[in-house]
Amino acid sequence: MTTEINQTGNADAKxxxxxxxxxxxxxxxxxxxxxxxxxxxxEWGANACKSVNYMGTPVSVVFIHHxxxxxxxxxxxxxxxxxxxxxxHQVDRGWDDIGYNFLIGQDGRAYEGxxxxxxxxxTKGWNDVAIAFxxxxxxxxxxxxxxxxxxxxxxxxxxxxxxxxxxxxKLYGHRDAGTTECPxxxxxxxxxxxxxxxxxxxxxxxxxxxxxYRPTASTGGNY
Length: 223
Ligand SMILES: [Zn+2]
Known about the structure:
This protein is of the alpha/beta class.
């Protein structure tokens, strides 16, 4: 599924606003920008990534993570936390960039990580076939607030509308594909109840075949 997008949007849905990444001639139409706001890399003060590798979309797998680090409840605090996490991933872990595709704050905003088209560093073995949303905080013993949970769902819907996530996607917690407690026991118990949760019993998820990358008008560009 390829969605060609121009300034007037596609025929199926009329974008109500656009996200333009700094220096990027392309724009993301934000079909649900009335319900979720994406804070761009420029807005949270990202460092440049070391290299960029793209994956084919739409992906059919979505992973939910928590950062197991600090919570944040305002845009200023979440922007600061994004810079802390990016430094941790780039410097201490030695990765190209902050690992997740998007991070979610309890201010109800989504923060641009590797965005929709870039291979992340979030779920070993699955990074080239999945988009990962990570809620900032530790949700082992408590849930994220409603604003953060609503933002995750709105971002998945936005990903579907942009042609980045298949409508019949499967959703997993990080722990379904690795030896980790992530996304925290309490949050994991919640996402197990969501419609697209894909784990059946103790069966491990089956990795789909990666699809070739093809640039589209909504591919992000300035990293
Ligand atoms: Zn994780």
